[in-house]
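Troubleshooting entry. The earlier prediction with uridine-diphosphate-N-acetylglucosamine gave an output that would not parse, so I re-checked the input for stray whitespace and re-submitted. Clean input:
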Amino acid sequence: MRKVISVVGARPNFMKVAPLHRAFQKYSSIRHMIVHTGQHYDANMSKIFFEDLQLPQPDVYLGVGSGSHAAQTAKVMTEFEQVVLREKPDLVMVVGDVNSTLACSLVCSKLGTRVAHVEAGLRSFDRRMPEEINRLVTDAIADLLFVSEPSGITNLKKEGVADERVFFVGNVMIDSLIQFLEKARRSSILESIGISKKSYVLVTLHRPSNVDVKENLEQIFSMFEKMSEHGSIIFPIHPRTRKMIDQFGLSERVQHNKKLILTDPIGYVDFLCLLDSSSLVVTDSGGIQEETTYLGVPCLTMRENTERPVTVSEGTNQLMGFDYNAVLKESEKIFRSECKKGQIPKLWDGHAAERITKIVAEQILN
Ligand code: UD1
């Protein structure tokens, strides 16, 4: 029996590992284990995703919690090293670009355990983003690199990565989206919030560059005040953003705008429903740029760059930087239905995880 461990740590990891777990069940000679580092630990940042995505309880929970980047990364490394020494996996799968991704790939490379990176090759070319450092280091040391869009192949080639390590397989997050879209369309989240289809803007903002600077966060709420003249704004709040709103004394101002509806973080299926039914999404997330592209929903990304350029060249995404007036102007066009039309990128077809597990099986069973 061979053994593969997949690592999850933070919210954007769960929907990437769920289809991998399902695809591994087809291989009776491979035992697939899930290790949760505990980087995200609130019920609505973690537990609800296991339920929604029908993931089994993690085989191992490391419970590392929050901390500085160094402290969090170090703690994951120390704990995960014990797991690898005890379980002796034939291969470890890491996904995305969070601190847990970096920490676990480092542990594996030092112990001589093979590691595969899912969502490899993405580059924002902005080293001020912790995720960019995580991506660069993980790709430099991983043995197998599974790529979701053409830019990933170009970037890895430029970095001198050997072709044999790189596989263009498509997008596992879209596997989950396709699997759960029907269920999402039956969700009652719109009724419970009191909004109707295509009548609202959905917002997610949590990047330090947007929410950790008081002036930026204030400008964002001014922008919402203008935008809400056109309809409701639904803003599920990430714990980091919630903390900053309180710290900057903005809570009262936020509550004053009755069209701005702040909610706690929302589970996977309900959030997918909100995405699918929104008239516009404003975000600084990575994955949401891809989900809106698949769904054909207009997306304005409040970042200066994206590591997912296919969402701009082929999809519905537009990069707005931190230009709040530009976001307002674009959103007005979108409200007049002057939307950018997009198409679904190649291999975003619901079968990425099957391609990945087939390659992994070939590598570890032979
Ligand atoms: C992390 C990822 C980011 C990803 C995001 C998605 C890194 C470097 N960043 O950022 O790429 O887009 O997750 O959510 O790995 N907190 C809670 N409860 C939780 C988790 C966090 O209250 O369950 C609070 C903590 O106070 C913590 C803060 O949120 O200090 C930030 O959490 P952290 O995991 O450090 O980074 P994120 O901003 O969530």
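This one parsed fine. The mean pLDDT is 96.
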